[in-house]
């Protein structure tokens, strides 16, 4: 399929041929949901921790005699029902990540790119470079393009001035092509790819 290419100044810069197998895949919301869950679970720190009964620093002596008090038959004050006791079945340090086949991850990225293309939310620009790292200048250019909530994916390496100028613009993210992922694509309204990014993504996903 063909797509128009524009410049950051919103001028026409020709056309580009997009691979159907990468940008024309059927949209499957189930795959997108699985991939987003996989990414978010993997980035969780998992450092939450509470003390259980065996970790409480207190005496293990029996609280009161077994019979004759009319109270329940308790042994130690370390148990969960007493203040200062250990928590039962509390969170422990662990890895929240889970497995997802490489084939599914690859297909999910194709679906994310295809979903943006199908919704008309994919813009191709010739290059993502800037002459100066001025945020105000970059904000003006992006506003002229109608980009208020977008992910911009560049080539293998980010242009230094462009990255500096765009990093402080609200709701604008910038990534190199190898960093393109389903979560960041779906969390932004518009996806902007450079021609170099298109080539790299097609080589990665074909």
TrEMBL record:
Cellular component aspect of the GO annotation: ribonucleoprotein complex; ribosome
Record's keyword annotation contains Glycosyltransferase: no
Keyword field contains Manganese: no
UniProt xrefs under SUPFAM superfamilies: Ribosomal protein L4
Record GO biological process: translation
Keywords linked to the UniProt accession: Ribonucleoprotein, Ribosomal protein, RNA-binding, rRNA-binding
Molecular function per GO: rRNA binding; structural constituent of ribosome
Signal peptide: none
HAMAP family tied to this protein: Ribosomal_uL4_B
Sequence similarity: Belongs to the universal ribosomal protein uL4 family.
Assembly and interaction partners: Part of the 50S ribosomal subunit.
Biological function: One of the primary rRNA binding proteins, this protein initially binds near the 5'-end of the 23S rRNA. It is important during the early stages of 50S assembly. It makes multiple contacts with different domains of the 23S rRNA in the assembled 50S subunit and ribosome. Forms part of the polypeptide exit tunnel.
Name listed for the protein in its UniProt record: Large ribosomal subunit protein uL4
Source organism (scientific name): Aestuariispira insulae
Encoding gene, per UniProt annotation: rplD
């Amino acid at each position: 399929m063909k797509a128009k290419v524009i410049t950051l100044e919103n001028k026409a810069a020709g056309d580009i041929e997009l691979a159907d197998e990468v940008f024309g895949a059927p949209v499957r919301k189930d795959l997108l949901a699985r991939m987003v869950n996989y990414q978010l679970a993997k980035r969780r720190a998992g450092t939450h921790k509470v003390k259980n009964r065996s970790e409480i620093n207190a005496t293990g002596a029996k609280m009161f005699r077994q019979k004759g008090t009319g109270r329940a038959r308790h042994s130690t004050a370390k148990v969960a029902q007493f203040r200062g006791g250990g928590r039962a079945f509390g969170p422990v340090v662990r890895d929240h990540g889970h497995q997802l086949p490489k084939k599914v991850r690859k297909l999910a990225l194709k679906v994310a790119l295809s979903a943006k293309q199908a919704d008309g939310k994919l813009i191709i620009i010739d290059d993502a470079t800037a002459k100066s790292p001025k945020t105000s200048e970059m904000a003006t250019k992006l506003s002229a393009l109608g980009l208020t909530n977008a992910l911009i994916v560049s080539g293998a390496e980010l242009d230094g001035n462009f990255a500096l100028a765009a990093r402080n613009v609200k709701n604008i993210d910038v990534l190199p092509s190898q960093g393109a992922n389903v979560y960041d694509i779906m969390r932004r309204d518009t996806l902007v790819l450079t021609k170099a990014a298109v080539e790299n993504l097609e080589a990665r996903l074909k």
